[in-house]
Fold these 2 entries.
Entry 1:
Amino acid sequence: MFKTSLLIVLSIILADNSAQADISASLPRIINGKPITIDRVPAQASVFRLNTFICGAIIISRRTAITAGHCVLFYQYRPEAYQLRYGSSLTSSEKRVQVARVSIFPAYSHTTLNYDLAVLTLEDDVDVPFARLPEIDSTIDPGTTLTAVGWGLTENSSTSTELLMTRLKAISLQECRDVNPGWLLSDNMFCAVGAGSTTCGGDSGNGIYSLENSLKDSLKPEVLLGVISWGDTSCSIIPARPAGFADLANREMRQWMKKLVI
């Protein structure tokens, strides 16, 4: 069985059982992930800061991409430090574009990862199919199979240069709260959990997609449902621990995004 790892979410460390007190990155694991070709998720891109890979992103228009807010928080006023690489399953892609502006959702909280979303305005047009966004205010039924993708560390702690994927099942926000009673989860997030695979660690900003076109063996881009935001530090498979995602059907975030899309 193919067994690799993927760094895709920011870990949250709880100082006590009642509040989220600290956020830090940790080494990742997606167990039983496998490669996915870029034609399945052509809008996927990797974010480099000062020539170092840091996060994933998703292209939503000719000069606009989105990522997790915490990925670009500390260099948000230095957009020239960021570069997007796209159009390939490999992070070494020669298709590259500089970031002209970084915009983080105004209500973003670095303590709770509430509204964990940022828009990257690009210097030049990009020539890939853009991500298909969900209908505003749409919901994901618990039990729905989702596809999380991204780049990250392998089991020998070297960074994967190949795009990887894993299947997760959506769970209700209440179930997510029950599993994590001290976490301040909000309605602009959704949760999913693996069965025999899981996500954890620090490579956020990548996408989680519907499974619609994978089932139909179609090359039409799948619907981008969310941006990978956070996860549990234990990387536990038994019992599996949920990961959290910024919900792109959220009305507030979509209205804000619309003002920034070029």
Entry 2:
Amino acid sequence: MTKKLAIVGASGHGRVIADIAEILGNWSDILFYDDKFGSPDFNFEYKVSGTSANLIDLLKEDPSSMEVALGIGDNSTRIKFYRTFKNHDVSMPVLMHPRAVVSKKVVLGQGTVVMAGAIINPGTTVGDACIVNSCAVVEHDCQIGTGAHLSPNATLCGGVAIGEGAWIGASSVVIQCTSVGRNAVIGAGSTAIKCVEENTTLVGSPARMVKAR
């Protein structure tokens, strides 16, 4: 345990990532960086060492000094930071809770987080900087794009393709052999029974488009 883990985003999601990291025990220290650092009303239970700019400056000097996890729930912001750190050749490990069930025939991209109770079945590829949240189920042969977020209890049936930055809401279902386009949102509790266009928001069961984003 020689490296430190820097978590970008002093948030509730960041705290969950810190909890997973503490359970895994692979780092000598866990530090937070957040752009609200220094604000008079900013209060957080973990040590916050500076802003994201401070972290980037440190990593420019020595990219191997620490690894980075992305404690940011918002997809577009998380993808932005992921690309920034990737451009600096920073290591972004996969953090997978020990109580997640993930097949050995699954590919997990760098910077992806898999929460407790999640299930990911064989033949699935999860892209970089994704969130597979608590008790989400990803069935066989799914393809999940960079920065997508599967919320708690979301279910992807077999052969589903999820585009970059898409958000699958809590307890929603995407039926087999369909696709969800880039930056699309499936509302909580919805059931997507056909392909979803990019940059749209759908709600209901069956899910219907309520707006184009």
